[in-house]
Design a protein that fits this description.
The strands form two sheets. Strands 5, 6, 7, 8, 9, 10, 11, 12, 13, 14 and 15 form an eleven-stranded antiparallel sheet that branches. Helix 2 crosses helix 3. The chain is α+β, with helices and mostly antiparallel strands. It is globular and about 55 Å long. The longest helix is centred in the N-terminal third of the chain and has 15 residues.
Length: 307
């Protein structure tokens, strides 16, 4: 394969609409000046393999077509392959939180324009070690946001729902349903230099990007290229706390709540007496204990050129 563009497409994204529409979408992209080979995902994890293969065979640009889960697999494939190619995305999916941080439009024509003419931004990722459901240790990279606790349960519920309501409504509905059932648990968090936080917590969010859970502006100060992870510690919040604070999650004004703390660290380790679910870029993959470590400058993402 000579240097060229490769589209990595998740046909199951957008409730399966992407696969059905891809011939039309590929034709539109070509008319907009972006052409390339198409590789389709056939199963969970397949895009990791396809991204590594595209990089090894000389792709200069890999375009992830799908949602945040699609992007996560592509990033994993590129990082594991030590790829030097650039990554673009045409966001078609539920969460689409990665693109919000980078100012990439969710409009098809504009996203294609960014993939075609955007500038490369070198950004970090997080290396995550965790336990699979059967207790084995596993490793995965996170491009945008990972979390431990209730957010992981929300991701699981949202991923099991129809997305006909749209990403924001789907995630908010899942958030409300899970919160009403969730009980906060004792959690231990270790940061750089052995600094610790221990106590009953609702959630631990580890952010490289700013948005999570379908447009919640959870880490408004996060910079994906600063070599640090923004760690949001949500303490022992009550049902009343949730009712009064939930709208603030979308405005980024929740950080003033006395049970919310934001710290920055290169590493974050989270454990609990009971195994808590974790999610990475919206996908629930396993449980605690989990460790996050920033990998500076791991990928090059095409973002809109600024005037």
């Amino acid at each position: 394969m000579s240097a060229k563009t490769v589209f990595l497409v998740n046909p199951a994204s957008d409730n399966g609409v992407t696969g059905k529409r891809w011939p039309e979408l590929a034709n539109r992209a070509a008319h907009l000046g972006l052409e390339g080979e198409t590789l389709f995902s056939e199963r969970p994890g397949h895009l990791i393999e396809l991204a590594g293969r595209a990089a090894a065979e000389g792709a200069s640009l890999v375009v992830a077509v799908g949602g945040d889960g699609t992007l996560n697999e592509v990033v994993n494939g590129l990082v594991r392959a030590n790829a030097t190619c650039e990554l673009a995305t045409i966001p078609i999916g539920t969460g689409m939180d990665f693109v919000r941080t980078h100012g990439i439009s969710t409009t098809f024509a504009e996203a294609v324009g960014t993939a075609r003419d955007g500038v490369a931004r070198t950004v970090d990722v997080g290396r995550v070690t965790y336990r699979t459901w059967d207790g084995a240790e596993a490793e995965r990279y996170v491009a945008n946001v990972g979390s431990v606790g209730m957010s992981a349960a929300v991701a699981q519920r949202a991923n099991g729902m129809s997305k006909a309501m749209g990403g924001k409504a789907t995630f908010f509905y899942a958030l409300v349903r899970v919160f009403l059932e969730w009980e906060n648990t004792v959690v231990g968090v270790e940061l750089d230099g052995g600094e610790r936080r221990d106590g009953r917590m609702h959630d631990v969010v580890v952010a490289n990007g700013q948005y999570h859970g379908g447009a919640m502006w959870l880490a408004p100060g996060a910079e994906p290229d600063d070599g640090l992870l923004d760690v949001l510690l949500i303490g022992d919040v009550t049902k009343r706390d949730f009712i009064t604070t939930a709208p603030k999650l979308y405005r980024g004004t929740h950080l003033s709540h006395p049970k919310v703390e934001l710290v920055r660290s290169k590493t974050v380790a989270v454990d609990a007496p009971e195994r808590l679910p974790i999610e990475l870029d919206g996908e629930q993959l396993g449980t605690t204990p989990v460790r996050f470590e920033v990998v500076p400058g791991a990928i090059r993402v095409r973002v809109p050129a600024r005037a």
